[in-house]
Amino acid sequence: MFCHKNGENRVQERARIRNLGSITPISDIYERRSIISPLLFAFPGKQRPPRSDRSVFTKNKKRAAQAKDTHTHTHPNKPEKNSSSTLINDKAFSEHVSGSGCAKWRQQDNNPAARRAPSSVYLMESVRCGAVEDAVISPAPIKPACLFACLPQTVISSLPSFSKMSVFGPVVKIHPVVLASICDSYERRNEGASRVIGTLLGTIDKHSIEVTNCFSVPHNESEDEVAVDMEFAKNMYELHKRVSPTEVIIGWYATGFDITEHSVLIHEYYSREASNPIHLTVDTALQSGKMNIRAYVSAQMGVPGKTVGVMFTPLSVKYVYYDTERIGVDLLQRTRVTPSRTKGLTSDLSQVGGAAARVQDMLTTVLAYIEDVLSGKVTADNSVGRFLMDLVNKVPTISPEDFENMLNSNINDLLMVTYLSNLTQAQIALNEKLVLL
Amino acid sequence: MASRETTVFGTINQTIVVLKIIKHYQEEGQGSEVVQGVLLGLVVDDRLEITNCFPFPQHTEDDADFDEVQYQMEMMRSLRHVNIDHLHVGWYQSTYYGSFVSRALLDSQFSYQHAIEESVVLIYDPIKTAQGSLSLKAYRLTPKLMEICKEKDFTPEGLKKANIGFEQMFEEVPIVIKNSHLINVLMWELEDKSTVADKHELLNLSSSNHLEKSLQLLMDRVDDMSQDIVKYNTYSRNLSKQQQQKHQYLQRRQQENAQRQSRGEPPLPEEDISKLFKPPQPPPRMDTLLIAGQINNYCQNVKEFTSQNLGKLFMAEALQGHN
């Protein structure tokens, strides 16, 4: 994305900074994207699907705009629905609906066929657009589809959901710990600093880049110059390397909405440390009402031989979790709903109760949908019907006696273990008392 | 409470601490090795706020000690530059099926608590977490145990004096997770944009594997305990035998003295009995205490696990009943 600024004096200012050429307004970029795209991608593999995305493009914009409205309306109403309401979130419903077609996207990065998936997704979307457009106003019926796509063990991947851009290329996978770190260092910034920068650490795969760690680097920024404490950055990197030797510097991050000219300089420095560094921006000032998290990579552009410029091209961002991370994040997300933003850790049977309550919530939504279809309010959707079939068939049919036997033997095992552990505890308590006699 | 001892009523973690600990274990701690790290934060009123943490490298090099101290100092200095709290408030450790009550942990926690009154050790159980619920517990040594460790008096008499049982070794401190508004926004974002993985690990019915391992560890510990008990029994038997011998010797002495007196000879000097009969060494009771504590921990975990599973089984029965 170009460093896009208005005004003539800015132009002159930027001409002062080396390596920058002419400025193109953003709108032109979108038009010219199809021309520029073959030049831009220094990465192997993926070509963007040529034409279908353009039409979907506008529809994306419209849908995103509408979804944004519904998003702000409905969220205050369902504070009690926990992270499982990711499924029932109307804002992302379109992505989920189309995403349900591609399974396990994020784990098939080495499979070139999988990267065709986005194009197929978009085609599906354009086909569905007709049906879905009507349903955009009342997104409720589409929700259960996401639900069922989840239950039969497929991992739905959400599409890169930049509201206005759809880009393909190497995927940047971010762990939540990185984002939490960035937010934390933003909150602790020095007085007067408007943004924070830091280094990103992670691993590079053949076609994807995984960001697993980061640390912030002190820097000073003024109108004319940028001073970044590189010594510090090197030191920290060494320390981090001792703990996790597999992580390498893969780029840097900055908080703030846009890319400034200072970013270019910093980016240049980092390209000395790592080949083709990534630049991540996190909009902590929430300028557009959301926290935009974007990743860029720089590419040369311009006329060869004459002034060359640097352009930041966006990359698609995905969030990945380890299993344990996922569970941790689930718990952490429940802090959103309490007014004091706190949450204790529960234990024991109450957790099972909580999980059961969540499943029950999901089931009520499903039932509501089914009622609607039966009463004719909503047209039936075949794929949803198939998922429903799956759901009902998931409860295995076993003859009652067999099931009784299995259940009883399991329960007996558990009861015996409980009894034994109680016995052991009594034993050691007794032993202790005897010693003290 | 008393002016010198501030009891910590609760700890407050930030999101980032939890995530970092999870990540550290995931990347570096495969297998049964423990991963450790330092907790940073500060003390506010009666709460301990943990705001950041960093991991320790594994002890693979020879000059591990030197590296450790230097690593720690450098890390803290660097973190101070970026305005992260650089005050040590404790340390964290991962555990394997709940087996963390050991001499090493006791020593480390003692030295921490000695230096910093309110420090805690956070125990993170990755296996329990993978089963569906984040398992993070904070422990401190009770004041009684602190005193004992200070005096290094581990004999049975010493422990009896302090009247300490295995349940009074560690006290658990309740953990609360608190987030700032910005992190809240981040959580909303993540929920929007992230995929929906299987979050139903908690409702998984298969339990035998976990149960087996837990019981195996429990059995090992009970074996250790029984050995210890046998040692103690032999000691007490020896002690009582010695008492008897002393008694007999004294009696014989007295008899002889009486005879000599009757014959008019001077009585033999009373020899120092303690030199003749050296009392056997009482075995140190600290290990027993630790083992008892560990067994207690295992039993608690097993009971929790079985209660959860019973609930799940009954749910499955209800589902089946409808068919």
Structure at a glance:
Chain A: One of its GO terms (cellular component) is eukaryotic 43S preinitiation complex. By secondary structure, chain A is an alpha/beta fold.
Describe the structure.
The complex is a heterodimer of chains A (437) and B (323). By secondary structure, chain A is an alpha/beta fold. Chain A contains 13 helices and ten strands. In chain A, the strands form two sheets. A seven-stranded mixed barrel of chain A has the order 1-3-2-6-7-8-9. A two-stranded antiparallel ribbon of chain A has the order 4-5. The longest helix of chain A has 37 residues, at 400-436. Chain A is extended and about 85 Å long. Mean pLDDT of chain A is 63; it is low at 1-167. Chain B is an alpha/beta fold. Chain B is 54% helix and 15% strand. Chain B contains ten helices and eight strands. In chain B, strands 7-6-5-4-2-3-1-8 form an eight-stranded mixed beta sheet. The longest helix of chain B is centred in the last third of the chain and has 56 residues, at 208-263. Chain B starts with 9 loop residues before the first strand and ends with a helix. β10 (342-344) of chain A pairs antiparallel with β8 (175-178) of chain B, so a sheet runs across the interface. Chain B: Residues 241-252 have a biased composition (Low complexity). Chain B: Its main location: cytoplasm. Chain B: It comes from Astatotilapia calliptera (Eastern happy).
